[in-house]
Amino acid sequence: MKTKSLFLCIVVLFVTASCNQDPIFYTISTEPALKEAYIKGTPSNMVVFEREYHLDEPPQIIKVPILYVGSERLNWYAKRNYGRNTPQGQDPGSSWNNADYRIPQPGERIIQLAATENYLYALWSTRTGSNRTISRIGSDDDEWTRIDPSGYPLQTIYSDPVSGRLFAGAGVGSSNNSVILYLYEDDSDSDPDNHVLEFRLLKSATAVLSGTAFVGGSHYLSTRGSGIFRVEESVLDSGVTINESHVHHLDFWLEPGSSKKDHLFMGMIRLEDSNNTIIAIERNGGTLYKVDTLNDLYEQIEYTDHESNKTTVATGRFATGALALWENPGDSSKKLLVAGRQGSLVHSTASSIPNGYVEFDLDDNDSLKIVGITETDLARYEYPRLKSVDHNDRYIATIGPVPINHLLQAPEEVSVKRTFFASTQNEGLWSYRDVSGVPQWNAETN
Questions:
Q1: For residue 413, what is the DSSP state?
Q2: Which one of 84, 243, 423, 435 has the minimum C-beta count within 10 Å?
Q3: What is the Cα–Cα distance from 55 to 61, expressed in whole angstroms?
Q4: 169, burial (CB in 10 Å: exposed 0-12, middle 13-18, buried 19+)
């Protein structure tokens, strides 16, 4: 009898909850089956780089745009039969590690990637993680070239595709015990023995490098504890010895006559607006900052809500450093800035604290849409209501509990569907794609 009574109570509870349209049951009913990730663990960031390949019919050399991501090995994602004739209206699709686009492995365990127009760079380590090395490969190279970091313990690498400059962060983790290096190359002499390719010191006694952006001939460098620096590309290219006068430490604008320069930034991105706006994201609270390139300072981004209160634009909790631009493949007028978020410093997919990412709307000019925010929009900015691009319930049931380290939307040259990828902490590589007619997040499979 007790068992029967308990069963009836459960049935009554279910019916009552269903009648009340409890969203929990809707979430359960729409939850997609989670797939096992093809690229497991904690993948590196993703970059797009063109590699040269030979076609037999017709005989030609083509450059294939390829998305690369690292884990225990380097993986690549590209269109099938790129450059070959495809029946009009048909999408040949894209796939992982296609044998047509083989590339040698740079090392044992990929930590981070960077790409310029001419080179793909990889920061990698031995499987024990005791030694880290930087290697690079050109568009038509058959092997990787190691670049000696001059004894510095490497931590991060970042590049600018326009200038071709590579930067590296090195040190032991202390905010005052790290350095910023830049790769200097001089191959103007026809004698190969006189070819200079080496890392040089840009800034000492600083925090770990966490991002770069290039605007108006200047490189802006964010750090995890020392704010933001600026250096001119012309100075780096000249080959002169860098000193304190060449590296400008940007002020943080609080109020006239007040400044602070030690913010812990996890990442930096340049928007595609006409102002070349640079945005950096702070670790604690995920506050967004805008770089004022004219006055060598950075400031918090604020908005005025429906009650005329000024509030900083932030993700809440902890920023992971993942920053990416997203455009709706079916509607180019819908664009977002997407930022990775971690609700707790302890990784757990079972945590009730939301992780995943936060969306920030971009306007018609590709700038942050922070003017005239309505009460309806407020939740997206003030401790935002985390959601996926279209389906909040599917977001909560899939990638919502997972911290994201890196994000990237594949260009159309790589994926006709403009697939949006996420490198997660410990849960492998995920993507936002159409599954049986429904867009959703799930582990990326081969």
A1: T
A2: 243
A3: 6
A4: buried
Is 289 buried (19+), middle (13-18) or exposed (0-12) by CB count in 10 A? Answer: buried
What are the tens digits of pLDDT across the range 62-81? 899 999 999 999 999 999 88
3-state secondary structure 109-148: EEEEEEECCCEEEEEEECCCCCCEEEEEEECCCCCCEEEC
State in Å, rounded, how far the first CA of the chain is from the last one. Answer: 52
* Threshold 0.85, pTM exceeds: yes
Cβ 361 vs Cβ 369: under 8 Å: yes
Lowest mean per-residue pLDDT among 199-208, 250-259, 369-378:
369-378
Q: Rounded to whole angstroms, how far apart are CA atoms 191 and 270?
A: 38
The answer to whether 207 and 178 are in contact (CB under 8 A) is: yes
Which of 400, 403, 399, 396 shows the shortest CA–CA distance to 425? 403
- CA-to-CA separations, 435 to 89, 148, 251, 361, 441, in angstroms, rounded: 20, 45, 47, 25, 9
Give the phi and the psi of residue 17 in degrees, each rounded to 5.
-65, -40
Residue 378 one-letter amino acid: L
CA distances from 165 to 69, 182, 230, 266 (A): 20, 7, 14, 20
**194 secondary structure, DSSP code:** G
Give how far Cα 257 sits from Cα of 250, 253, 260, Å. Answer: 14, 9, 11
In angstroms, the CA 96 to CA 134 distance is: 24
Task: Give the DSSP letter of residue 5.
Answer: H
The answer to whether 184 touches 150, Cβ cutoff 8 Å, is: no
Tell me the C-alpha distance between 158 and 134, whole Å: 12
Asked if residue 359 lies in contact with residue 290, where contact means CB atoms within 8 angstroms, the answer is no
